[in-house]
Amino acid sequence: MKRVLIFCIATLIAVGNSIAQKAMTPPHVMIVPDLIYCKSHGYTQQFNNNGILETIPDYERALSEDPILHAVLTQIAQLMTDRNGDIVIVDLIEAINNAKADAAIAVSNTGDESESIDEAIIRNSEADILVKLQFNLVKNGPEYRISYVLNGTDAYTNRNFAPISGMGKPSTSSDPTVLLREAASENMDAFLSKMMSYYQSMLTKGRMVAFEIKTTSSTSINMNSKIGEYTLREQIEDFLYDNSVDGNGLERVQSGNTFIRYQGVYIPLTATIRGRQRKQGAKDIAQKLVNHLESYGVNAEYKIRGLGKVNMFIK
Fold it and tell me: How many Å apart are CA 140 and CA 143, to the nearest integer?
């Protein structure tokens, strides 16, 4: 009887673990050339970020002018999925095309230009993680060696969390695709372990989203105006608390009479959206907040920059 009980308990635990694993949505990963690589090969462009010129990668130009680059990015993707078939690879070219279509719609609707092109590409990819690749082929006599750096990066915050680097063995082959596969294979398991550990932490701690909410000149209310039982500021804070992981990040706030700015609120990676359990992003929280404010007669609009920043305007 005791053995039967132990067997039943073990079975229930195994079933529970299996269900939990199936419920865990896999990470979406996009592999891109690192900014350092783009700079060294001239694949960059300038972006005017509120009067400050920033150098950003030009992914479209890099892929169209560098015939080996797409093959190398594809090789890294293949290495990753060979080791972990649950990972979903987001195609960079598809994200570029989606961003271009999105930009065309924005122009026709007199959209603003506050978002850079690389931010738009990342937003349209809806990736959880970016893997940024830098590599260099070195010739020494008749032999070639390849050096590389892989950086795992949070697509929402641009925070690096799993950098690895290495130098391949000397070879008579000059094909960067072959050399990189051989070199990166040695460290790929360690890289994926760090990446999956980071993603697992997001499942428990949430992912960080920055919020900047402003009242515009066309509205008669400000952050201290009473909206229902509480002020607009309090309504926003309470909403974000209820839609975050234990209110984490709400303490990092700047505010005034016409604005409130959170450096990063940790939102759950998944949530019940329209009656179904789905992966949740910044746009989902932003839309919920718009709907919440609308229930008090407050009109608001939002724009997502990249994936991890919400700009909202009270109108």
Answer: 5
Domain boundaries, the chain: 25-203, 206-314
Which residues pair with residue 44 across a beta bridge? 57
Bridge partners, 171 (sequence order): 144
Strand partners, 143: 140
pTM of the model: 0.85
What's the CA gap between 193 and 298, in Å, rounded? 46
Q: CB burial class (10 A; 0-12, 13-18, 19+) of residue 164? A: middle
**21, pLDDT greater than 50:** no
Reading the block at residue 259, the tokens are 């604005």
Per the CB < 8 A criterion, the answer to whether 236 and 289 are in contact is yes
Alpha-carbon torsion (13, 15, 21, 25), positive or negative = negative
Contacts of 233 (CB under 8 A, 6+ apart): 223, 224, 255, 260
Name the token pair of 141.
Answer: 């006599």
User: What are the helix and strand counts (H, E) for the chain?
Assistant: 9, 16
Q: Maximum Cα–Cα distance for the chain, whole Å? A: 77
pLDDT digits (tens, 9 = 90+) for 181-236: 999 999 999 999 999 999 999 999 999 999 999 999 999 999 999 999 999 999 99
Q: Is the dihedral of CA 302, 303, 309, 313 positive or negative?
A: negative
What distances in angstroms separate CA 109 from CA 63, 99, 104, one per listed residue? 29, 15, 9
What CATH number has the domain spanning 25-203? 3.40.50
Q: In the predicted model, what is the mean pLDDT of residues 45-57?
A: 90
Report the C-alpha gap between 207 and 89 in whole angstroms.
19
CA atoms within 13 A on the CB side of 179: 23
**Computed over its alpha carbons, how large is the radius of gyration of the chain?**
23
For residue 192, give the H/E element and its range.
helix 176-205
Positions of E strands within 185-273: 207-215, 226-227, 230-231, 253-255, 259-267, 270-273
